[in-house]
Amino acid sequence: MLKHKYRKIKRTKNCKLQDYQLFVIVFAVTIWVTVLIFFISKTVTEASSLLVYSVSANIITFLILLYTLSRREEVSTFSIPVMSNDAGRLAKKLKRLFNDKQITDVLKLSNTTRYGDEMPEIEVWLDNGLLEGYIAIENIANWERADREKFEQRVSGILAGKYQRFAVINSELTAGDSFILFYFEDTLTSKRLLVKDNLDSLQPFLSDDSHTIQLSKDLMWHSDITPMLSIIARTRAGKSVLAGRYMARLMLLQGWFVEYNSSKYDRYVKEFNGESDPIQIVERAEYWCSVMDNRLAKINEAGKEKYTEMDNMPDIGLFFDELGNLNASLESLDKVNRSIKITLRWTTAINRLSATGGSAGIHIIAISQFATKEGFLPSLARVNCSDAVIMLGGAADSADERKYLMSGFADMPKKSYGKGQGLARILGSGKKWEVPHFFETPFFDDN
How confident is the model over 178-207, as a mean pLDDT? Predict the structure, then answer.
C-alpha cells in the first residue's frame, strides 16, 4: 500500500526559494505591515481605512500561500511489513546511515533542481532474526542509466563499520519503478549445515515436505517446483560429499528412490545401486524413460496433472556423476563401432528425462567438473537443468563456466572460494536465490 507526503528538498548554494516559501515570507511581511499601520495611524478613521486594505492583502496572500502549499510535489512512500521491536530498532539505526550527504554525494540518487536537491524517500526492513532485509530508496534519479553493480557496492560501503556484517547481495526496481530495493543479509554468519558423523546425523535436516531437500540453513530445494539440479565443481571441491554423502542419503530418509550413476566407479555407485560402465549408464537412462512413460500414463488415467497429486508415487533421484568422462567414453565407443550410435541414445534419453521427468517425479542431479557441452549435458538437457545450479570452487569463480548455466551472470566480481564453497542459483527457493548467491555445502564433523 502506498501513502503520500511532500518531498524533502535540501537547500544548496544559490538555490531559489520555492513558491510556498516565498509566500510564507510575503504573508509574514503583510502581517507586520498591518500591525505597524495600526500603531502609526493618527486617527481611528485613517487606521480603519488602511487596515481594510491590509487585511485584504493578508487574505489574498494567505489564499495564495494555501494554493502554493497544495501544489508541492507529493511522493509515493514504501509501506514495509510489520517488524519485531528488535528489528524495528535496528532498521531505524540503519536508516540513519543514509543521510543527505550519502544520498547526494555517494549514491547520487537525488535530483538537482533550482530549489535545491530533491531527496528520495528511504525505508528499511529486517526479518525478525536480524539476518536479512532490504533498503528501499525512492527512484527519482536515472536508475536505468546507473551501474547496478557499483550501486550495490556503494550501499554495502555505507553499511560498513559497525554494521559490516551486512552486505548487499541483490537489487531490483519495484513494480512501477517507484523504488529501488537493495537486498542485504548477514554475510559473516555461516549458513552451513553441520552434520555429526553418526547413524542419526541427517535426522535434524529432514523436511516435513518430502519433495523439499534442505541444502543449508537458508536454502531449500523444492524439487516439485524446480525438478532438476546441476552441480559443477572441480576435483576435491566438495561435490561428491554434497551429492552422495548428504543429498542422496537424505533423499532416502525422506522416502525417495535413489540411483547413483558415475562413469568413475566410486563408493556412491555401490551404495546406491548405480552403474559405472558407460553403456550401462545409457541403458539406465533409457530404462528410466520407460518408467517415466508408465508414470505419466497412470497420472493421465487418474485425471491428475502431476505426480504430487498421486498416492504412492515417490520422488526418484537420478544422479549422473562425472559427465565429462561419460561423454568422452561414449564418443570413443562411437568411433570404434559406428553402428552403435551410443551417444545419440544417451542424448535422446537424457533430453527426454530432463524435459518431462519432473511431471513424473523423476529428478536428475547432473554432476560434472565443467559446464561446457563437451563436459556436461547436451544442449537441451543443459537448459532444462539450469533453473537449479550449484557451482563450487574454481567453477563458481569462472565467468566461462557461469555463462553456460547461469546465463546473464557471467560478469561478477572475482572471489576465491574454499572447499565446499561457491555459488547457488535455485529458482523457487526465495528471492535472493534467483541470482547467484554464496553457498556452503554441509560440513561433516568426523571427530
Answer: 86
